[in-house]
Automatic annotation (TrEMBL):
Name this polypeptide is given: ABC transporter ATP-binding protein
Keyword Ribosomal protein: no
Molecular function GO labels: ATP binding
UniProt xrefs under InterPro entries: AAA+_ATPase, ABC_transporter-like_ATP-bd, ABC_transporter-like_CS, ABC_transporter_ATP-binding, P-loop_NTPase
Organism: Pseudomarimonas salicorniae
Start and end residues of each ABC transporter domain: 7-238
Length: 320
């Protein structure tokens, strides 16, 4: 695998005309072939960062390179390496998928015979070939989303950036999109994903960065970052009705959600048998248990929640 990052950011800053500092010195590397998540709350700077990388926004300072190609000095060449799938569906609903793909490739100088071959390949890969000649407005929501990816892949990008690709779609469509994106990544394309669905990031991505207040406050391998969590949360369903008071277990937190379930927070290294033993002594029998939230959501809340915002900014300032 090449040692040159698919995307390399150094000291990236953006201050808008209204003096808002959207990016405050971003350093980031995304390795070739990675499936990378860029996460952050609304207003954190994600859209600005993507806008700079895709040449829709001019940076105030810093460096951006795509597979070693400097975006400022060789903008046209760098942009040929990138495919962008925006959040909004922005193709002509009265065109057919085949024509949408062929015409898009034509904008980038791909000869029509080659564009037609690519269109068939990408529409088949997106499981849309049987819809290639129908009006795009007749496609389902999930098909339209997959068409956006097929169109972006028409230029054979080495780096595919997706901005909230499953926003506002139901779970069935979202999981269908996951399958498509995994296939794109398996074919060798580096993928950067922004999403508010943290389950999506945890399922798809190998590495991630969390941005808040214009700074990267955490980045690294998904498994390594999730291992930092020292607390786990569970929901316990019990037989019968809860008594008036719950037992106390040192180091753990037990709260009644309703008459038939308990919210449990405990250190990751605590033995669950201690919890079950204390509940059993109180005459409470656990029927089933499930994880309260996914681990990435817990990490995200801890890093970007109100209590941690100032600390995150301070940490970012020390790192920059």
């Amino acid at each position: 695998m090449s040692e040159t990052p698919a995307l390399r950011l150094r000291g990236l800053k953006k201050t808008y005309d209204n003096k808002v500092e959207a990016l405050k010195g971003i350093d980031l590397d995304v390795e070739p072939g990675d499936f990378f998540a860029l996460l952050g709350p609304n207003g954190a700077g994600k859209s600005t960062l993507i806008g700079v990388v895709s040449s829709l926004v001019n940076a105030s300072a810093g460096e951006v390179s795509v597979f070693g190609i400097d975006l400022l000095r060789q903008r046209s060449l760098a942009m040929r390496q990138i495919g962008l799938v925006p959040q909004e569906i922005n193709f002509n609903m009265f065109e057919k998928p085949f024509d949408i793909c062929v015409n898009y490739a034509g904008f980038y100088g791909v000869p029509r015979p080659e564009a037609e071959q690519r269109a068939e390949h990408e529409l088949r890969a997106a499981h849309l070939w049987d819809k290639a000649r129908v009006m795009s407005r007749t496609l389902s929501g999930g098909m339209k989303r997959r068409l956006m990816i097929a169109r972006a892949m028409m230029t054979r990008p080495r780096l595919l950036i997706l901005d909230e690709p499953t926003a506002g779609v139901d779970i069935e469509i979202r999981r269908g999109m996951w399958k498509t994106l995994r296939e794109v990544n398996a074919r060798g394309t580096t993928v950067i994903l922004t999403t508010h669905y943290l389950e999506e990031a945890e399922n798809l991505c190998r590495n991630l960065a969390i941005i808040d207040h214009g700074r990267i406050i955490e980045q690294g391998p998904m498994k390594q970052l999730l291992a930092k969590l020292d607390v786990e949360g569970f929901l316990l369903d019990i037989d019968g009705t809860l008594p008036a008071g719950l037992p106390r277990v040192e180091g753990a937190k037990l709260e009644a959600v309703d008459e038939h379930s308990i919210d449990l927070e405990m250190p990751r290294d605590m033995d669950l048998n201690r919890i079950f033993a204390a509940l059993g002594e109180a005459g409470i029998r656990v029927r089933s248990m499930r994880t309260k939230t996914n681990r990435l959501e817990e990490l995200f809340v801890r890093l970007t929640g109100p209590a941690d915002a100032a600390a995150g900014q301070t940490e970012g300032a020390r790192a920059s």
